[in-house]
Amino acid sequence: MFTDCGKNEKKKNGFNKRNMKLKIYTLSWCGHCKALKEFLNYRKVEFENIDVEKDENAAEEIIQKAGSSGFPVIELDGRLIVGFDAEELSKILGEEK
Q1: Model confidence over 41-69: pLDDT tens digits?
Q2: Which of 15, 44, 73, 91 could form a disulfide with 96 if both were Cys (CB 3.0 to 4.6 A apart)?
Q3: What is the spatial distance between Cα 72 and Cα 10, in angstroms, rounded to a whole number?
Q4: Domain encompassing residue 37
Q5: Rounded distance, CA 41 to CA 37, Å?
């Protein structure tokens, strides 16, 4: 499903070395949410997962911040991204050439 970018590429992207904070807001039944977690785990990217079904306050807060009730929501150093686009996230993580 996902293309392996190679061991050297994974080390070079330096995502966590730059101390970027990555939070994802997800729903247990959401297919795009599952794909996002698989994408990040495959690339060994550290993230905090917030299950909005279990935390109603977080759900309300992120819906207000994002201006959307779509999930997943990715929060990267204060920047919000609604939805999951593997190609775009790869660019953000520095995997694209």
Answers
A1: 999 999 999 999 999 999 999 999 999 99
A2: 91
A3: 23
A4: 19-90
A5: 6
